[in-house]
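Re: that chain you flagged

S.,

Sorry for the slow reply, it's been a week of failed gels. I finally had a moment to sit down with the sequence you sent. For the record, here it is as I used it:
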Amino acid sequence: MRLDVEEFLERFRRRAKAVEERGIPPLEGEARRAFIEQAKLDHLDYTLVGSASWSVEDGHLVLRIPLARKESEPEA
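Prediction finished late last night. Pasting the structure tokens below so you have them in one place:
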């Protein structure tokens, strides 16, 4: 199986969008807070990987993830 890096990164972009669009299940109290916090972390993780540029160096896939926020992006 050959890795299609662009498709790999696209899957992360789709995951980030899915997390952003999904609703909150009927949870209360601590469970609700934990669900929301995990959703925020999932979105951050998927967005970071999905925004990466990539190269292959010495046989290794190298992802470069931009850490500087664009002016048009809201703060997390």
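What I noticed first: Residues 5-64 form one domain.

Talk soon,
D.
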